[in-house]
Design brief:
The protein has 191 residues and is an all-alpha fold. 71% of the residues lie in helices and 0% in strands. It has helices at 8-22, 39-68, 72-78, 80-94, 101-129, 137-164, 180-190.
Amino acid sequence: MARTGENTKDVIDRVKQKIKEIEPGLPPGVHIVPFYDRSQLIEATVDTLRHSLIEEVILVTLAHVIFLMHFRSILVVTVPLPLAVLCSFLLMHHAHVTSNVMSLAGIAIAIGVLVDAGIVVTENAFRHLEGVDTNDRGRVLETVMRATRLVGRPTFFSMAIIILAFVPFLPLQGRKGSSSIRLHLRRLLRW
């Protein structure tokens, strides 16, 4: 049985190893047969997150190449994606929050939100940079800042609405959710 804060995949792997160790000592014809193995669900969830991240990077790259035809702007939107996932896992590790299906699904959704926000801001900056001499770095910076401020508030509030959509999940307990989510959030906020 996995205790709170324990890595479920490690527990499952240790149980499988222990079963292999004790099977030779069982009476002839007696075998231990698992009836529920969560390791496949865990691996499928991690694969979904991995595929989601890769697909988002490819789609963002294609969108920038096709619509903006500017290769450097691709880095502005695509580089933060893996960095955001890495930061999420680092914060979870620091707060002693183990990844589960719910947290991995949240990270996958957050990837989409980051992509949307990045594309909106980048596209608006490009629209405002039309006719601006790109060799004048001060003018370019001023134009990009003005364009970012213009869409910054709506982008922030759209992201806040998505985050607020997850608030109803916080009080869930038992199999539907976990009261430990609140505990983990408190730990994270204290940090």
